[in-house]
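Example record for the data management plan.
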Amino acid sequence: MFLLIMARMPVALSMLVVGSAGYVYFVGLSSFLNFLNATPYYLFANYTLSVIPLFVLMGAFAERSGLARDLFALCSILVGRMRGGLGISVIGACSIFGAICGSSLATTATFSRAALPEMKRLRYEPAFGSAIIAVGGVVDLLIPPSIILVIYAIIAEQNIAKLFQAALVPGIFAVVLYCLVIRIVASRNPGLAPIHEKADGETRLSGSLLSVWPALLVILVVLGGIYSGIFTATEAAGVGAVLMLLAGLMQRRLRWSDFAYSLVQTATTSAMIFAVLLGAEVFNAFLALTQMPEEAAELIGGLSISPYAVMAALMVFYILLGGVMDELAMMLLTIPVVFPIINTLDFGIPKDEVGIWFGILVLTVVGIGLIAPPIGLGVLIVTSIARDVSIAQVYRRILPFVAADFIRLAVLTAFPSVTLFLVRAFS
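Corresponding structural encoding:
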């Protein structure tokens, strides 16, 4: 399967081909055809999966409404006058936009277009500005509602609302660490991030608040509804999509062409995700026939080593894997094998909390993989749009952020209560 992926075959097709061949090898063609006769329908007719296209649609409406540009302008007015303030405003705007969009790569691409030209105009070093945008896109992996977190919940059979609760504190922690890195780096090397003044700050602030308040209200309704138990995650996604559409129409920012484009973009993105889900379903059925997940769990459980040592080894494995695979494929391929192993270990916390804690740790290392060498899809997206900066230059500027990520990962691993604080508070 890895050879097929390296040969540029789509990940979904690679999993489908290998999984199909393995399934036929073990139980025969007729059994495999019977499996295909029912599995795709029951997979795609799953009510829980409807949350994915709804959150994608909400993000598409937000993007076509020009929300990213307005959020960046608002955050720039609020903190732009301090050293590194424009970079901090990018992180803040990415966090808010990520709470609406739900896709890290979409957030990275959007802000590469919305923020990078302004950062260059204000004499930010191109590589430093590109690095900030790349890490800003990673933040929304943990800022609810995160699509990849929903997919983890489906695969690992975890409660989506509890995962959203658990993700909020680590997500804010990531934002704070990234802002500290920007301040420290900008203070040590002022040429990377010059200070800029805005004479008409108060006027522009009122105008920016007027532009973004409907979107902020949508976020409040969606997350507030999920956390308070008024909405399920799927209902909140539907409400958020409708409210975001109404906000765009009220502000006269969504034309018919934007509405049509949003529907097409949602269909395309959802089809890609569902194709990968189908490939993973077939591949995981093949893995189940091999009994490899169960045997791996028994093997690890029989070793006389600390559960935290096993967790640390798994985090290193995910970091290495994240350097060569995208987050969706990595999640779908590994969780069915790794999660049974985690369930056999005793971390001193209830079993139902282990799955939630592990999910947040996995998303943290997935984020590191999105910005770390040798691939770093977030960096590739920024450099493909920036064009005047090399990947090597961006990687050089991104290393302090990666160091902050390792600090965050160590804290979340050593202290599960940081992740589980809100889950326990709302239970």
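Summary line stored alongside the record: Residues 199-203 have pLDDT under 50 and may be disordered.
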